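pasting Trypsin delta-like for the record, 277 residues
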Amino acid sequence: MSGSRINNASHSAQGQFTYAVSIQLLSPENQVQETRGHMCGGALFTLSHVVTTAHCILREIDNVPQPIPALRVFAGSVDLTNDTSPDLVRAVSTVSVHPRYTGPPAFVNDIAVLTLASAFPASAATPLNLPSANFNPPDFTLCTITGWGGAAIGQNSSSVQRYTEKYIYNQNLCMTIYNKIPLAKNILPSMVCAVSLDIITTNCEGDLGNALVCAGTFTGVLSRSDDCQASSLPEIYTRVSNHTAWLRQISGSSAVYAPGVFVLMAVFSLMQVFIKA
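structre below
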């Protein structure tokens, strides 16, 4: 599994990112660790559905999902260690990997959904709205990514949630950069490239699946990082808008849909017609 940690990032404030989840792998060893078995990140898009990257939850040895009884999801607090309220932890009932996920080295359609055994209470978490299918933020759009990846080299994860800012990188330039790197993945329209504003903050171990939120809209989930390097090489995210229909199909009518700007303009125009009439 490729590494990813939010290295050199800032601590999140309580209640700042209540959509973010810690996907945890339970074992006798993990349960006694301060990070409670944190494996990777994800985001709620309903109170009972989590989106993450497919290779976050697939075992490297046989490319099948981790056993469902060994998975749980933590949300609603920035502190993995000290906040032990039962409202913050949910068991997983099903795992849905995108049917056209290719796996390494391409990582096309690198997205999966965890359906929870019971919903988080609204007092604990707030899901992200799914973007419209045509949502495509312009270059340099400011974004935020948050998670529990390790805070320093050699740490698998952090007990406290951290966040940093990214901005959308030009897709064509991103393709050109990766095309020059031997054995690098192809950059496709179903992917989003983003880089840090300060260069030094980067994803590494424990941050796969973290949500990229741009201008308040759920934009991507972390698929490939810069392997903990403080550089300007773009990180790659699975583009959520390319999978909105599939996510809604998995979650049913409970999934909230955020209409694109053109839809909102059309609704506004119709309202104006009725008002004038």
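Helices lie at 28-31, 54-57, 171-179, 244-251, 261-276.
Residues 220 and 239 are 5 Å apart (CA to CA).
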